[in-house]
Amino acid sequence: MPIRKDKQSGVWHLDIRTPGGQRIRRSTETTERKAAQEYHDRLKADLWRQDKLGDVPDRTFEEAAVRFLRECEGLRDYATKLRHVAYWREKFSGRPVRSLTADDIIDALPTHQIVNEKRTRALTGATRNRYIATIRRMLNLCEAWEWIDRVPRLPHYHEPDVRVRWEPPEVITALIRALQLSWMRDAAIVAVATGMREGELFGLTPAQVDLAQRNAWITHEEAKSKRARAVPLNDDAMEIIARRMKTARRLVFTRGEALDARVRQIDKRDFGRACESAGIEDFRWHDLRHTWASWHVQHGTPLMVLKELGGWETIEMVQKYAHLAPSHLADHAGAVKFWSGTEAQKEKTPLEEVA
User: Fold this and answer.
1) Exposure string over 230-262, b if 16+ CB within 10 A, otherwise e
2) Please, which pLDDT band fits residue 290 given cuts at 50, 70 and 90?
3) For range 264-270, the mean pLDDT
4) Residue ranges per domain, the chain?
5) What are phi and psi of 118, to 5 degrees?
6) What radius of gyration do the chain's Cα atoms show?
7) The pTM of the whole model exceeds 0.70
8) C-alpha neighbours within 13 Å on the C-beta side of residue 308
C-alpha cells in the first residue's frame, strides 16, 4: 500500500520505491488522507524527474542547517551560529532551501529581543546583520554544494559608528569616590587601571594572578577574542588586587568576603548614582575600558602595543583611538621638508618684487 495510517497517532506514512529500486518509507506528518496522498504523488513524481531528467533533488532547510553546523564545528562563534540557526529553523522548517527568497528572509528577520516570551527593545542594525550573515554563509555553502542555483541578495543594515566614550582622570576619580559599595570601587579602579572587560575582571581567579611578577592572565575561555593574554598590573591595580588576594578564595572580585559567587552583573544602581554625583552623562561600565585605552594613546602608547594590552583581535579595532594622539604624527611631519630655511625661500617672487 503506497500510504497507510498509523493506528496510534493517526498520522499517514508512505512506502514507495524509486525508479532505481531504492525503498523509501517515511511519515507524511499529516493526519489528513488527501494531504498525505498529495505528498506521496509529488514525491514520486520528483523521484521520477530526478532519475529520468536529471533534476537535482530539493534539500530541506534542516538538511542544510545540519551540514552547515558540521562545517562550523570548532569555530569561535559556533554558539552564536547555533542560536541563529535555531531561530531560522523556526521560520523555515520543512522548506526546500531552494525556495528561500530575499523577501522570505527579510520578512522573517527578528525585530525585537525576546525575554521570557515577551518582546523588549528593538534589535539594532548590527544584530540583524549578524542573523543575515549566518544564513548568508549557509546559503553560500549550499551554492557550493550545488543545492541551490544562486544565493539571494540580502541587505546590510546601517550600523552606528563605533562608540568611544572616555573621561579625564579627575572625573573618573570623582566617579570612583562616589561609589558606595566597596567591591564596586575596587572593581572600577582595576577596570580603568588594566582595561579588563567586565567578564574578564569578575572571572579572575587567584591562580591567574602573580603578584611577584605584577601580572594577571586572562584565559582563552574568559577572553572575548578567545586568545589568552597577560595583563600587566600597574601600581593602582596592584594595590587593590594584593589586598583582595589576602581573603580571596575562588574569585578575586566578589560582592563581599562572605560571598563566593561570581558577579554576573555590576550594581547598576550604585554605578548610576555615582555617575550622577560626578556629573557624568551617558557613561557605561565598558566606558572604563574606553577611558583606559584613551589615556594610553594620549600618553604615547603605540597602537600595536595597546592592541596586545587590551586583547583586541585586529589593529582596526584600535584605530578608533588613534585620533586622540595627533602628536604621534607630528613627530614625523618634519621628515619631508624642502622650503623652510633654504636659499629658495629667500628668493623673491615676482609679486614681491612688484610690491
Assistant:
1) ebebeeebbebbeebeeebeebbbbbeeeeeee
2) very high
3) 93
4) 3-52, 61-144, 169-325
5) -125, 140
6) 31
7) no
8) 6
Instruction: Quote the cell numbers at residue 169.
Output: 582622570
**Strand, helix or coil for residue 186:** helix
CB atoms within 10 A of CB 38: 13
Higher pLDDT pick, 309 / 54: 309
pLDDT at 171: 96
Catalytic residues: 197, 224, 286, 289, 312, 321
CA distance linking residue 124 with residue 112, whole number of Å:
9
How far the first Cα of the chain sits from its last, in Å, is 110
Strands 23-27 and 112-115 turn out to be unpaired
Inter-CA distances, 280 with 93, 172, 192, 275, Å: 49, 9, 16, 5
Q: Is 228 helix (H, G, I), strand (E, B) or coil?
A: coil
E-only strand ranges, the chain: 3-5, 12-17, 23-27, 112-115, 118-122, 209-210, 215-218, 229-232
**Would the pLDDT of 282 be above 80?**
yes
DSSP state, 113?
E
Residue 210 phi/psi, 5° resolution? Answer: -125, 95
Name the pLDDT band for 135 (thresholds 50, 70, 90). very high
Res 265 pLDDT > 80? yes
Whether the pLDDT of residue 351 is over 60: the answer is no
Cell of 351: 609679486
Residue 25 has pLDDT above 90, yes or no: no
Alpha helices in 56-101 (DSSP H): 61-72, 78-92
Domain at 169-325, CATH homologous superfamily: Intergrase catalytic core (1.10.443.10)
Instruction: Name the H helices within 158-286.
Output: 169-178, 182-194, 198-202, 235-245, 268-278
Residue 28, C-beta contacts closer than 8 angstroms, at least 6 positions apart: 3, 11, 12, 13, 14, 35, 36, 39, 40
- The CA-based angle 245-248-250, given to 5 degrees, is 130
| Close Cβ partners of 131 (under 8 Å, ≥ 6 residues apart) | 84, 87, 88, 109, 110
User: What average pLDDT does the segment 45-59 reach?
Assistant: 68
